[in-house]
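ENTRY TYPE: paired fold submission
RECORD: A
CONTENT: sequence, then structure tokens
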Amino acid sequence: MGIAVNGVDINDSAIEAEIAHHLQAKNPLREAVHEVVLRRVLLDEAARLGVAGDSDDDRIEALFAREVTVPEADEDACLRYYLSQADRFRSGDLVEARHILFQVTPAAPLDLLRQTAEAILAELQAQPERFAELAGQYSNCPSGAVGGSLGQLARGQCVPEFDDLLFRLQPGELSGRLLETRFGLHIVQAQRRVGGEVIPFATVRAQIADELQRQSWQRALHQYLHILVGRAEIEGVELEGAQTPLVQ
């Protein structure tokens, strides 16, 4: 493909092997190329700094541990986050919900599936009363047989991204965008909501500190990668920003 990092060619075989990890992406080839190039940049930096490890992954982790550090979240920051995200820190909340699932399969590539899902979402935004009808016609979930109904859901019953969206919707609200999870693309609507109880700050303080620490680390990592990419001699591809897909 004519791609090189710091004067070293990137083999097509490395990119082909990486594509398997990005089949759900909009552009698997682009994501694979970015991942391989970014990995090479990091390994070159580890070598420059003399960072050792038993494997490439170990060397990259050791590089991050040495070069990317952030301060711990203090009490005030945790409290501000708790007060600003009050709806997240409740127990016993229930939401009655329904969805339409467009499942990704070899016969239904993601791009084609997305076009269909976007068209159905637009139809529902114009005629929301057709939700049950269209769920029965298009949903790849067994719930399609009952109009897409998932019944009452508590926090934690669904994958995190579904939970996060569902519990931000108001009763009767149809999400204005498609939700992408490992199961495919979803059109989501919240229906009746039953409120629970507020969880005391002291109970979730450690959880909040961990989350703020993770967010700060991700920002610091993004900045670090941006600097490394800017310094590296990369030929044949342009990295859009300093993407961080290899950090989960």
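RECORD: B
CONTENT: sequence, then structure tokens
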Amino acid sequence: MIPLSVLDLVPIREGKEVSDALAEAGTLAKVAEEAGYKRLWVAEHHMSPGIAGGATSVAISHIGHCTSTIRIGAGGIMLPNHNPFVIAEQFGTLDALFPGRVDLGLGRAPGAAPVLAQALRKNLGQAAEYFPQDVVELRAMLTGDIELPITATPGLGAKVELWMLGSSLFGAQLAARLGMPYAFASHFAPDHLDAALSTYRSEFRPSDYLDKPHAMAAMTVICADSDGDAVLLASSQDQAFVRLRTGDPGKLPPPVAGYRETLDMSAQGMLARLDVARAVGSPATVRERIARFVERTQADEIIVSGATYDPAARQQSLRLTMEALGADQPASAK
């Protein structure tokens, strides 16, 4: 069975607060670990009233204390927002707290509107240009493979698994050149998926850390007892996505029956574009759609996203998805 992992945006539900979202993230991580998922990643987002994972390394630490075996990490840290030295210290600390379990996915996007640059006191456009250099420097701070004038403590010697993230060809090319595993954000930006994976594999150069290409692809996956139940659950995320893309982001709303049918053609098309990396339905439907996606992409891992208004529904979705794909033991034992 292909390894499955979980991407959690730590959603804040309507009527709830950040504290509720973080508590629910810890519970979800426990469920993912028990069900046999390989990793649980938190993504860095800022200025989003419906997402509580902005202080990503802090959220990861909380999740680490709620679990004991599942790999935990960032999917990802938007490096232009940060100083590589600070990220080395943060993830060196996480590795000291949770040895052998920490992943660090690196992305180039800012993760928020341009006004974020002013809040961060940074020129994010210029910082993005230095992204390849910053990745190399950050890796050196953790591994010591390049001599630097400063030492990150914690940081140097930490066994953090570094990943490159992307939604375009840029990340694929950089991951290939640096010999890093690559994760593609096909759950919200599927247009360049096939080209990016092809580029990554064809241009890959072995490194001291990875001898052959290793690609992960993201899917929206919501599994319930029936197709209809799953579609209803998924309407919460559909609403949140449409609101985000139309400039009105908010907290995760309750589900609405027949939501897509209420939308204009433009919004329906926006959601339909995402369906190529989406498995929403009964266990049989989810199994078939994930299998078709894996056959198409030849991904080495799948990471599943997909928020539900009822936290218990997402917990059950993770269990049903793993059962649907035929897991009979934890991924860590395979």
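NOTES ON RECORD B: Residues 4-333 form a domain with the TIM Barrel fold (CATH 3.20.20.30). The CA atoms of residues 85 and 115 lie 24 Å apart.
STATUS: closed
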